[in-house]
Amino acid sequence: MSDLYLKLVNTPVGKTAAQSLGLPSPAPLKRLKRVDQPFIEGNVLVGAGPGAKAAATVGSILGASPATLLHASGQPSLADSALTGNKAKAVDLTSEVEGKFSALIFDATGLKGPQDLRALYDFFHPTIRKLAANGRVLVIGQDPHTCRKAPQAAAQQALEGFVRSVAKEVGKKGSTANLLWMAPNADNQLDSSVRFFLSARSAYVSGQVVRIGKADVAKASNPVAPLAGKVALVTGASRGIGAAIAETLARDGATVIGLDIPAVMADLQNVTDAIKGKALACDITDEKAPKMIADFIAKETGGVDLVIHNAGITRDKTLGNMPEHFWDMTIAVNLTAEELIDEELMHRELLRNNGRIVCISSISGIAGNFGQTNYACAKSGVIGYVEAMAKQLKNGITINAIAPGFIETQMTAAMPFTIREAGRRMNSLSQGGLPVDVAEAIGWYCSPASAGVNGNVVRVCGQSLIGK
Ligand SMILES: NC(=O)c1ccc[n+]([C@@H]2O[C@H](COP(=O)([O-])OP(=O)(O)OC[C@H]3O[C@@H](n4cnc5c(N)ncnc54)[C@H](O)[C@@H]3O)[C@@H](O)[C@H]2O)c1
Question: Where is the signal peptide (predicted)?
């Protein structure tokens, strides 16, 4: 579904008309063009508050990119910015800052109390207006749940409000701001998340907070095809977000088993043929489905590494008008089936060590939505399932969820015009996302280097105003 307004408003006449009428002026988002594209280019400025623990790691991650590395200087509160490494050139923030930055990164891991928050102001106040269009703001803090003292937890929690507000301020230029909360000594797990959030892959992800825990260090052996040798199961793969997930995981090297209902087999076959994958016709609500899927995997690939529960349906009606089968079907497809499939795959030891399970929730599951008691109930249940399973899974297996906002698919094309337009514009980037935006986020979860990313619910919603 194309967004005509986005195209019009980016013509010279459209831009002037939108400005004079006070209409939103969404900036075109730069998405990944080539798989071997550097994750960041241009000038990247790193700042660090007192006691910074991640700056050296960030410096070495950026050292693998062609970006020009710079570090903040001049303010006593930013003295630790020099930990970024001796390859970084100092930029004095007490005098006029020249040029534009493609990214501003701030290491807040050492902030011990509210008095230390001044370092955020000292770093961002002179630089935020120098952030280029489609720029990236990334703040790294310590997970408040791991802070022993209340002032430290307060300072670390404060980062969430700060980053979410920055995201709202920079969104009109197509820029994003996100926060990584790491566990103590988990800086060796930052690599895949720093790369993702600085890159064009996260174009539609903004205002998000990701928890990064301790895990064994794992790196993708092939940076262009990080999923080489992995087998992925993608449900609902014949169209929309599912087709984009299948294509993206295949692009990253995985062998994909695409699954969908028998009625859409021809479409599914088109998707899987194009990526040299395998097609499985199956209704996931069929009571024989978990066994059928497990048998197929056992026979065709001998196991699976990545399980992506994408299939979903909406059956909207206000609760008093909702027929029984709307309720039952929506819960069965969006929630129950995922749990039963995982149970069978694990019971038969088909989910391999260091596997990844990714579930699709929705912002409706976070905020609720009129006429969607059934859907929001199921998508909220997905979050509960992910959070509980993340604590139980062993052998390096992780589970995370994506909660998409308004994504341009057949599901959203079927919405009434006014609701569709509102969904598109009511976010910090003033536009809908594309299926590939969800798929890229799933690629990041699935990376072998994302072992420390577990139990998260990341919204791919352009920081939708709906929900928190
Ligand atoms: N499009 C959005 O804006 C949006 C927003 C939030 C969440 N989501 C979620 O993202 C996922 C994909 O959404 P989409 O927009 O691509 O939807 P879509 O309707 O275009 O595709 C869903 C796919 O799931 C398949 N499916 C449905 N029931 C199935 C069953 N019983 N067994 C097997 N396959 C089944 C369908 O045939 C279809 O191919 C869904 O879980 C949806 O709830 C989408």
Answer: none
